[in-house]
Amino acid sequence: MYTKAMIAALLGAVSADRIPMGYNNLSLEQLKHQRDVYQYKARAMSMFGASSEEVPVIDNMDTQYFIEIMLGSDEQTFKVVPDTGSSNLWVYSSNCTTVVCNRHQKYDPSTSTSYVADGQSFDITYGSGSVNGYVSQDVAKITEDITATMKFGEIQKADGATFLVSEMDGILGLAYNTISVDNLETFINSSNLEDKSFSFYLHSNPDQSYMMVPGIDESLGLEKVATHNVIEESYWNVNLTGMTGPNGAVDTTGYKAAIDSGTSLVMGPKALIDPLIEGVTVHATCRGVEDLPNITLTFDSTDYVLTPSDYVLRETNGLGITECLMGIMSMEVPEGFNYLIVGDVFMRPYPTLFNGNDNTVTFYKY
Fold it and tell me: Backbone phi, then psi, for 195, in 5-degree steps?
């Protein structure tokens, strides 16, 4: 484990920082929409193995959590999704005058003395739309101490209703360079951090959610569950060796688990998920939720139990009525898609350390 004192000694002026995370309370419709988005992500991931230029990067927009970053010498501030399911930084540009851009913070290169023009095209297609623009270079910061001079997407056009309603001003990709649009370096790799690790502590209460960069928050006294090697360096993919639900064990031979902070749900192919949750009915009224069975995911030889309070999502609408939704969903995927997408439903009960120093993912429990 990395303590703040140890990291400060190793890195000099760069110490571990607790970075607060905002929380975007999603509607049930937005949560259900994630299944559609990830059908597109499935197509992208099933193509991994082609050259990086040929792999489309599909991100998820309906996320709950975001952090603030600063761009430019004048430290322009943006709310961005810290996403281990993508690898690029992008924000809206001051050159964009669409309704979407005008409802969000926009990056203005003319006010930054550290801006460097690049100009190559930058385009990402999402399940719910697309963003288009060009590459620029500037100084990015997630704290005053943690900085990166890097290239990022400056977005001129965004198509899709999701962009309009989302609170976020962009995305901070935290996955591997192999899936980066235009092969741009990631923030972590470009940064002044020698320790290339970071961790998440996610809660439904926004005041309690944060990232730690680098290392883990030693002050919490967390119990380490297990460390898993990344078996494919695109998303943070670990070995999925088992899944067990009320109907018994599900065969997961050949499947990988993509640990993805950019989605609220746990999602996978119908052949994998449907037999796991068959008979598990989550009523919108939340009736009987406490009586639902536990569901277990196994990475390597370690079991991770999700209780109903973990995998059932509760959302309160504008009328004050609380509704429940199953947080484990199946989706139609192309042949060759062998991934389980493991999002915030899993990462809330299991604080997660992503370690780029040795390419491992470690889970903890409170």
Answer: -85, 105
Distance CA(255)–CA(282), nearest Å, equals 26
Q: Measured over all CA atoms, what is the biggest interatomic distance in the chain, rounded to whole angstroms?
A: 61
Number of domains in the chain: 2
Q: Which residues pair with 125 in a beta bridge?
A: 130
Instruction: Using the 3D structure, point to which of 178, 211, 244 is the last residue of a domain.
Output: 211
Query: Which residues on adjacent β-strands are paired with residue 353?
Result: 199, 362
Domain boundary among 211, 239, 264: 211
pLDDT band, residue 160 (cuts 50/70/90): confident
Answer yes or no: do 17 and 163 share one domain.
yes
Query: pTM here?
Result: 0.87
Residues designated as active site: 83, 260
**SS3 for 80-106, per residue?**
EEEECCCCCEEEEECCCCCHHHHCCCC
3-state secondary structure of 59: coil
Collapsed DSSP state (helix, strand, coil) of residue 221: coil
Tokens of 226: 């297990």
Alpha-carbon Rg for the chain in angstroms? 20
Tens digits of per-residue pLDDT, 32-80? 554 444 444 443 444 344 332 222 223 333 346 889 999 999 999 999 9
What confidence tens digit (pLDDT) does each residue in 279-301 have? 999 999 999 999 999 999 999 99
* Lookup result for tokens 């997961």: 252
Q: Give the torsion sign (CA, 327, 331, 335, 337).
A: negative
